[in-house]
Fold each of these.
Amino acid sequence: MSTSLATISIASPPRAAAKTPIRKNWPALRRLVSPLVLVLLWQAASMAGLLPARTLASPGQILVTAWGLLASGELGWHIAVSLARVLAGLSIGLTVGGVLALIAGLSRMGENIVDAPVQMLRTLPFLALVPLFILWFGIGETPKIALVALGTSFPIYLNLFAGIRGVEPRLAEMGKVFGLDRAGLIRHVVLPGALPSALVGLRYSLGVAWLSLVVAEQVNAQSGIGYMINDARDFLRTDVILVGLVLYAILGLLADALVRRLERRALAWRPVLVRS
């Protein structure tokens, strides 16, 4: 045969077409379709007179009001104050709830000591504790942060506790076979196994944080999104009220998206059943 194998040209497989920005971000854009349709229907109903501005401001009016508040610097100040309160309360709540979950989840004695009081407090309507918090902490920033901290501690406690107790016992036995002591088992087996549940608890805590802040910022507050909403209520400014509600929704959605991104990175080892 005169033709050698070296001279045979092997065609390289065709390269996959580069994804356009729209195709690359399509899974995220799909989540915006239904809210956009609702907003368009809302605007159409307002323009047709079905929704009076005194009852519910139109999306166009909300945008105009939001731009005016943003241009004056008032909106940015309220957002910064609310974010500071949420971060402070959330940090305390996650720390307290996480420590209590570790104590109760890693020890039967710890569960006997911690779990019953936590469950009793959890069944109380924590928003009804506002008058008691005012008596204890006054009317400054402390009761607002304490209310957020109390509300956010329960979701992280429940989910982390369930995650610790739900770790597969065979994994712990395998860790012992490889020579891990109790501290090593907790670090390399229990905590990684409980991480998915802990992240779910974090997402719930973020939602509860904003819910708590709505009430906390209406208690003798002089700034914050909740104060802005409360002040607009006295003047029947539904556009300002809706600006505040939209801000709560956007901030909550951004916080949830941040945790979801963290979840994808931290749990990259976990198999995914449903893909985009």
Amino acid sequence: MESFVETHEAAIRLGAFVGIFALMALWEIVAPRRALTVSKTARWGSNLGLVVLNTLLLRLIFPAAAVGVAAFAAERGMGLLNIYEVPALLALVLAVVALDFVIWLQHVMVHAIPALWRLHRVHHADLDYDLTTGARFHPLEILLSMLIKFATILVLGPSVVAVVIFEVVLNATALFNHGNVRLPLALDRWLRWVLVTPDMHRVHHSVEDDETNSNFGFNLALWDRLFGTYRDQPRAGHEGMTIGIRDHRDPREVDRLPGILALPFRGAITGYAINRRDWSAPSADGGGPR
């Protein structure tokens, strides 16, 4: 099983991505949550162009990917789950949950550190919110994320199967919770006790500082509730809220691939909203998610 998954990891992940993407795209057509405001063709071309660029870059720089690091750790007995005997199913669950927690911490970090926010604001600068937003990340942030994942795998020692399951689940939930889809309110209310729903995560993409700096989860809703970063709804409502970053509204800057790639290198690093305590005061940094 381990060897099969390791050998076919790329095909498994690609198949899952394509299948879930198609289902979410159909759902967005059948039951959209919000009316889109800019050209879908231009946005999708740029956002999916980033996906292709990031995939090629990762395969070029890290050909073995995360599963290769997991196999390396297992061969050498590295990591907590390789040192201590844990039942296989429990080890798998612990690994997926722990990796999800690290992704949550990483997400908070890229909001809290101004230099890293410069990279992450590529994700937030999208003027609309749909499933392609869930795959829109600057290549430098993708590389940073992979290095953090490698370090976590070496410390934790998850199996190859656990890593592939986590990667598939993370991609699936990122597409799901960035979807411009409508869920019955009662279902959303119950589901978000366990998983991050589209309405829950959409709050995180608001132009308002305190809303942007909430609901950091991609998969499990537990972490935001546990650490006090959970926000139920946007003040303006889901139809009325503004998506993106207030000072980055030019489509040529945020919806065209050259502008997106250059975005982290624009503007000075000054204050950033997550470090403020008085949300009523204006932000000191036009580059933050004011």
